[in-house]
Design a protein that fits this description.
The protein is built from four helices and eight strands, in the order βαββαββαββαβ. The chain has 169 residues and is an alpha+beta fold. The chain folds into two domains: 75 residues, ACT domain (Alpha-Beta Plaits, 2-Layer Sandwich); 81 residues, Alpha-Beta Plaits, CATH 3.30.70.260. A hairpin with a 2-residue loop joins β2 and β3. The two termini are 37 Å apart. 18% of the residues are buried. This is Glycine cleavage system protein R. It comes from Nostocoides veronense.
């Protein structure tokens, strides 16, 4: 079996997942994992598909005709995970929205060699104060020789500086 990673994006409308799933199934693929979402009127995501080696080229070719609905890019999967056996860290952040929060948080993580596995962010109305709140949920892993306490301390210092509530676990 060959594992392919599909990145997809298109104007949001009903039937996009079905159109993609039909092409995958009709070409012998098995839809294994996905992250899909509507954001700002676009439907976007990543799908991991396993397909028999002899059918992989056929699947790639069959994905092109759905470009009218979805733009699909096919990537070869890298099955080895850098996270295997390394310490995990979960970060929850909430504070007043302002430009640069993701840049600053990701800068601390990168400086400590922390790799993001999953990250979701959103903005929402601040119920009592008005304005917008920024919320982030991050799952990441430290390098093998990473110092979790140092990462925590750096994130907590940043949280005080940019005035956000932060939970690191």
């Amino acid at each position: 079996m060959q594992t392919l990673v599909l990145t997809v994006i298109g104007d949001d409308q009903a039937g996009l997942v079905k159109a993609l799933a039909d092409v995958v199934a009709e070409n012998g693929g098995n839809w294994e994992r996905s992250q899909l979402a509507e954001l700002a009127g676009k439907f976007a995501g990543i799908v991991v598909v396993a397909v028999p080696e002899e059918r992989a080229d056929g699947l790639r070719a069959a994905l092109a005709p759905i470009a009218g609905l979805l733009d699909v890019t096919v990537h070869e999967a890298t099955l080895a995970s850098a996270a295997d056996g390394t310490p995990q860290v979960r970060i929850e952040l909430l504070g007043n929205d302002r430009p640069g929060i993701v840049r600053e948080i990701s800068g601390v993580l990168a400086a400590h060699g922390v790799s993001v596995d999953d990250m979701s962010t959103l903005t929402r109305e601040a119920p009592m104060a008005g304005g917008q709140l920024f919320e982030a949920h991050i799952a990441a892993h430290l390098p093998r020789e990473g110092d979790a306490a140092a990462v925590r301390a750096a994130l907590e210092a940043l949280a005080q500086e940019i005035q956000v509530d932060l939970s690191v676990g």
